[in-house]
Amino acid sequence: MFEILKRQEMADGTVVLNEISAPLIAKNAKPGQFVILKANETGERIPLTMADTDPKKGTVTIIYQVVGKSTALFKSLNVGERYQDVIGPLGKPTHVEKLGTVVCVGGGTGVAVMHPITRALKEAGNRVIAIIGARTKDLLILEDKMKAASHELHVCTDDGSYGHHGFVTDVLKEALNKEDVKLVVGIGPVPMMKFVSKMTAEYKVKTLVSLNAVMVDGTGMCGCCRVSVGGKTQFACVDGPEFDGHMVDFDELSQRLQSYKEEEARAFASYLKMCKAGQ
Amino acid sequence: MAEKELKKEKIGRQPMPEQKPEIRRRNFDEVPLGYTPELAMKEAERCLQCKKPSCMEGCPVSVEIPAFIQLVKQGEFTKAARKIWERNALPAVCGRVCPQEAQCEGQCIVGKKDQPVAIGNLERFVADYERANGKGELPPKAAPTGKRVAVVGSGPSGLTVAGDLILKGHDVTIFEAFHKPGGVLVYGIPEFRLPKEIVYSEVHFLERLGAKLQCNTVVGKTVSMEELFRQGFDAVYVGVGAGLPSFLNIPGENLIGIYSANEYLTRSNLMKAYLFPEYDTPIAIGKDVVVLGAGNVAMDAARTAMRLGADRVRIVYRRSKDEMPARAAEIHHAGEEGIEFFLLTAPTRFIGDEKGRVRGMECLKMELGEPDSSGRRRPVPIEGSKFQMDCDLAVIAVGAGANPLLTGSTPELKLNKRGYIIAEPATGKTAMKGVWAGGDIVTGQATVILAMGAGRMASDSIHQYLTWGW
To answer: The whole model's pTM is what?
Structure first.
C-alpha cells in the first residue's frame, strides 16, 4: 500500500505532485479533507490536504512545496517507492451548496487545495470566479486545471512576471465591487488568508479559509492544531480544517506555526548535509 | 517441620532491582530492572497457595495467580507463562503498569501481616523470561468458527478481546488509527515505564496466533461501522479509548510551549521525539517546566520533561498531596528523580512574551473546603493570594474525554451526556446490534487493567453471540 504511482515536479522543482495508491482513503474522501503522511520509520507525521482523489484507480493526489526535511524526504521518493503511512480522509469536508456567484482565491500551494473545492462548487451549479497567485510566474501551479474548474480565472504574480501585477486581494476587491458574491473561499499562506478575510469582512461576504496548523495525530487526540475561532479553542484536525475566516485569530496561528522554527532548521540542515555526503 | 516453617516466614518480599534515581532521571531506559530467576523463585515461595485465593478476585481478568506462582516456584517458567496466557494476553504489560496495590496484591492474605506477594513483579518476570528464552510455543487454539470480528482500537481492551476471541477460533481483525498498535501503551506510557518493544512483541504474539492488524485505519473516517458489517464482520468491539485532551480553558492557553499531556507524550513516546534529530518529530525542551495535574499521566509527563533535560520540573496541583490521584509508587519515583510538588495552587492565566511563547503563569493559592461529588475536598481559592510563577514549558494533564470521531459518525450508538458509549456493564453490549464497547470509551479515563477486564467480559459475551446468536 501507499505506493507512488505518479510523480511530477512543478514550479521549478520547488513543488512536487505525488499520486499515491490508497484505495480506502480514495473511496471515502471529499473535497477539503486531508491526509497525514509519514515517509519512513524515523519520519514525522505531516498533514496535507488532498489535491485530488480517484476512487476508481484507488489513488489520492497530494501537492506539496519543499520547505524542510520531511518535504525534502517526500521529494526524494520515486515512482514505485512507498510512503510508510498514509492516514485519512481526515477533517470535515467542505460544505458545498448552490449559492450563486462564488470566488475561490488560492495562493502558492494553496491552489492545489483550492482545486477540488473549486471544481465541486462549479459542479454544484455555482458561477465560480477563481483567482490564483504566486510570487513569480515560474512558481504558479495548476493554471490549466483551475481554468477548467472555474468560469473565470484571474492570475496574479507579486512581481508582475505574469498576469496581474500584484496580490490576489486586488482582483478580489474588483470582483466584490462588481458582482453579487455569495461566498469567498481563500486558501494559501496565512497572511493571504488574513487579508482576504479582512477585505470580505468589509463587504460582509461569508468567507471560508483552510487552516494549515501544526499537527501530530490529526484525529483530535492531542490539540497541537488548536486555533482560536470566535474566541473559542477549536482543533483544526477535527473541527476544521475549514473555518469562518472572519472568526479566526490569524496572528495566533502565525505564531504557533513558528513553534518549531529552530528545530525545523536544524533537521533540514543535517538532512542536506547527509544528502551531500551520500552523493 | 517447625524449623522449615520458621524459615519460610523469614523470607521478606524481594525488592525489584532498579536504576538509581540520579542516573535514570536523564535516560529513557526502563527504571525497574526485573527479577533474576533466583529472585523470582524466592519470591514465589512466599505465596501460601490459598485454596480460595482472594488475589484472583482482585484481578479484573481473573488470572489463576496461585497456579502460575506455583510453577514459578518450581522453575517452570514457560508453563507459568502459558498459565497466565489462559486469561491474559498482555502479561509483560500488566506486570508493569497495573496498580497491583489496588488489585491482586491488595487482596493478598500475606499482605495482612507482611508485605503482599509481589504478583506483578512475578507476572512481569515470567513474561520477560518467556520472551527472552522461550521457544515461541503457542497456546492451543479452538477450531475455526468461520465468524469474523472487527476490533476497533488496539489499546489494552481491544488487544484483550482480540487475544481471547482468536483463541476461541474466531477470525479477528484489529483496526488502529495510528501507525503503530498499542493505544495508550505506546503513545501514553513512557519508554522508561514500559518499553515499546515489549508492547510490539505482545501484539506480535497475537498476530502469530492469527489476529490480523490493520494500522492507519480511522474507523468513522477511513471506513465506517456500517461498511465493516458490509465487509462481512459478524461482530464489532469498540475500544477506542478516551483520547480527547481536556484543557484548563484559561487565557493564554494557546501560547507556544503549552502542551496537552497527550501531545507531549505522543511526541516523545510514539514519535520518539526524545531521539530528535535522529527521529524527525521535534519536541520543545523546557528548562523550567510545570505540569498541571497530579494523576499518573502528570507523573509521566514530569518525568519525561526531566529526562529531556529540564533544570526544574514542578507538578502544580490545586489540591494537596493526599488527594493526588497518581499511584503512590509513581509519586515516589517522580520525587526520587527530583520532581518538585507545588500543591494547593491553581493557574488562572498563562503569560507570554512578544513571540507568543509561554513565560509564566498567574496562580492563586488554594485551601481545601468541603468534600465534592468525587468525595475529595474541594479546593477553594484564598482571597488576595494571587502570585506569578515562571515557566518556559507547561504540560496540561488534567484528564481526557471521549473522542467523537467514531461515535459522531455512528448515530446508532447511544451515548451518555459526556459522550461516552452506553454499554451493559456485565457484557459490554451497546444499543447497536452486533456492537460491543469497553474500556475508557465507556467508563471514561481509567486504568489499563480495568480496560482489559471490560474487554474480557465483552469477549465472553461476543463469543456467546457468535456461538448461540445472543
So the answer is: 0.95
- Residue B1: predicted pLDDT: 45
CA-closest candidate to residue A47, choices A178, A238, A227: A238
Strand runs labelled E in B168-316: 171-175, 212-214, 235-238, 244-245, 258-260, 288-292, 312-316
Answer whether A85 sits within 8 Å of B355, measured CB to CB: no
Cα separation, A196 vs A210, in Å, equals: 12
**How many other β-carbons are positioned within 10 Å of the β-carbon of residue A180?**
9
Rounded to a whole number, what is the distance in angstroms from the first to the last CA of chain A?
29
Closest C-alpha among B51, B429, B88, B413 to residue B237: B429
Q: Give the ipTM.
A: 0.95
Rounded to a whole number of angstroms, the distance from the CA of A80 to the nearest CA of chain B is 20
Cell of B44: 514465589
Which of A28, A233, A263 is nearest residue B276 as measured by Cβ atoms? Answer: A263
- Residues 6 or more apart from A206 whose CB is under 8 A from it? A182, A183, A184, A200, A244
From the list B466, B450, B428, B468, the residue with the least C-alpha distance to B152 is B428
- For residues A150 and A118, the answer to whether their CB atoms sit within 8 Å is yes
Per the CB < 8 A criterion, the answer to whether B215 and B413 are in contact is no
Whether residues A259 and B267 touch (CB distance < 8 A) is answered with no
Using pLDDT thresholds of 50, 70 and 90, give the confidence band for residue A278.
confident
Helices (H), ranges, B19-97: 21-24, 37-44, 54-57, 65-73, 77-85, 91-97
What pLDDT is attached to residue B129? 95
Query: Mean pLDDT of all residues in chain A?
Result: 95
Distance of CA B194 to the CA centre of its chain: 9
